[in-house]
Amino acid sequence: QVQLAESGGGLVQAGGSLRLSCEVSGTASYIRRVGMGWYRQAPGGQREMVARFTPGGSVQYGDLAKGRFTISRDTARKTLSLQMNSLKPEDTGVYFCNAYGVGTYWGQGTQVTVSS
Fold first, then answer.
1. Residue 41: predicted pLDDT
2. Distance CA 115, CA 13 (A)
3. Cα–Cα 20 to 30 A to 63, which of 10, 47, 53, 86?
């Protein structure tokens, strides 16, 4: 069983930055094998992909993230990060860490609120 624990959310003004982190309980070899990413669920909305690594190691960004967010991972520290810059009120939502490819796992989410 893999556990994911997000942190780093909070309240920020429009134009500000936040860095989200996800700690992974799996092994480093597991992290290298699977896809991992960040998803956002806005109030009343569906969960949508923000950014992710595919199992092959490619990086994909959702439309809301392109040019503003950067995903990274540290296999040795078993963490996945999302650097979010130039935040907008429409970025508000709960951000979830996800791992897929060998089972599918979700974290509990971390709230990001961007005020105008």
1. 97
2. 5
3. 10
Q: Is 109 left (phi over 0), alpha (psi -120 to 50) or beta?
A: left
The answer to whether the beta carbons of residues 9 and 51 sit under 8 Å apart is no
Are 78 and 57 in contact, with CB atoms under 8 Å apart? Answer: no
- Say if residue 115's pLDDT is above 90: yes
73 pLDDT band, cuts 50/70/90, is very high
User: Between the CA of residue 65 and those of 28, 56, 84, what are the distances in Å?
Assistant: 26, 21, 8
Cα separation, 69 vs 64, whole angstroms: 9
Question: CB of 10 within 8 A of CB of 115?
Answer: no
- Dump strand ranges (E) for 1-116: 4-7, 10-13, 18-24, 35-41, 47-53, 59-61, 69-74, 79-84, 93-100, 104-106, 110-115
